[in-house]
Amino acid sequence: MSEKEVHNTETKHANSEVITISKNSLWKYSTFLLAAILIVGAFVFFTKGDSNSPTGRVIDNSGQQLPGQKAASVSIDDDAVLGDKNAPVEIIEFSDYQCPFCRKFWTETFSQIKKDYIDTGKVKFVYRDFPLESIHPAALPAAIAAECAREKGGDKAYFEMHDKIFSEGNILDSGTANGPVTKTAQFGNAELKKWAKDLGYDISSCLDNKKYEQEVSKDMADGSAAGVSGTPAFFVNGKLLSGAQPYSAFKQAIEAELA
After folding, report:
1. DSSP for 153-187, written as a single string
2. Contact by Cβ (8 Å): 66, 148
3. Pairing, β 123-129 against β 89-95
4. Among candidate residues 146, 81, 82, 105, the one with its CA nearest the CA of residue 242
5. What would the pLDDT profile of 173-196 be if each residue is shown by its tens digit?
6. Contacts of residue 82, Cβ cutoff 8 Å, sequence gap at least 6
7. What is the distance between the terminal CA atoms of the chain, rounded to a whole angstrom?
8. E strand or H helix that includes residue 124
9. 165, β-bridge pairs
10. What pTM value is reported for the model?
11. What distance in Å separates the CA atoms of residue 173 and residue 181, rounded to the nearest whole number?
């Protein structure tokens, strides 16, 4: 082989190696770029979903009461009351039994409010329904189930079922009644009937017939009229406090009304 032929052969090998290296580099960088796009895309999707969905709007706890806020006209309607009906402070919650942030409030904050303010006669608490059916299909049946339990045993039974739904939802989520809230719990009529039966209430016929659907619809209408757009939403003597707020936010709002 001549010197010229050797040179041409070496040049072809060199060019082939460069092309191979270039292809490998392109594949490697393309993979990294694709992974980066997927990560950024997922971040944008989930953060956008959190900020725009009725449930997601409350996760950042940004809806605290504003100083000097005027009280809205919100009635308790004929809904169940927990605590002294003549208590000086009234908290009305518009909530969704399948909403994870509503369950977060129940898991992390409600018991302390009950201990410090409801059980001591300073606060009466009213739960009104605001089921977001488009994303929480079990919310409406759960709301009806709680009303069915109330039919059997009054306000006491209502709040027993209220607590049962949230505690069982948390067990389905994280394995314990008071464990961390990580996701939306999935359940249906069969579970609701069983939970009510565990409490001693047979709600099968009432739930199957959707007996209290209009009652729940009335709550929804009243909540919307009062400015509720996401769950949970609270009115402390008519003043809106939105989101799964920490206990400190409720304490501040309640103490301001007691002052």
Report:
1. HHHHHHHHHHHHHHHHHHHHHHSSTTS---S----
2. no
3. parallel
4. 105
5. 999 998 999 999 999 999 999 999
6. 114, 118, 124, 125, 126, 127, 155, 159
7. 103
8. strand 123-129
9. none
10. 0.76
11. 7
